[in-house]
């Protein structure tokens, strides 16, 4: 993996995403999901909400990186809250 010039933060990011996907797969096998309607305007499954939450987190980070000089920890905290909110009530 040396050809990719991994840094610790980028490696942790992708390891975290892989662990989330593995956990979602195991959870889906143990407790199959049914579509439901939360505050999002569409009916979603757990996987849909995870994807929407991760996509929203990416946009939050892009906004902060491109539009502010704040430390990356601020959008990280906002993204965690956003992801938990979408997974729980989306």
UniProtKB/TrEMBL annotation:
<keyword id="KW-0472">Membrane</keyword>
<keyword id="KW-1133">Transmembrane helix</keyword>
<dbReference type="InterPro" id="IPR018678">
    <property type="entry name" value="DUF2160_TM"/>
</dbReference>
<dbReference type="Pfam" id="PF09928">
    <property type="entry name" value="DUF2160"/>
</dbReference>
<feature type="transmembrane region" description="Helical">
    <location>
        <begin position="6"/>
        <end position="30"/>
    </location>
</feature>
<keyword id="KW-0812">Transmembrane</keyword>
<feature type="transmembrane region" description="Helical">
    <location>
        <begin position="50"/>
        <end position="66"/>
    </location>
</feature>
<protein>
    <submittedName>
        <fullName>DUF2160 domain-containing protein</fullName>
    </submittedName>
</protein>
């Amino acid at each position: 993996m040396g050809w990719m010039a991994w840094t610790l933060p980028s490696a942790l990011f992708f390891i975290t995403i892989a662990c989330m996907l593995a956990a979602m797969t195991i959870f889906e096998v143990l407790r199959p999901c049914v579509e439901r309607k939360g505050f999002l305007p569409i009916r979603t499954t757990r996987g849909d909400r995870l994807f929407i939450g991760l996509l929203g987190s990416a946009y939050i980070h892009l906004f902060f990186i491109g539009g502010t000089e704040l430390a990356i920890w601020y959008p990280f905290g906002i993204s965690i809250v956003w992801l938990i909110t979408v997974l729980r009530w989306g």
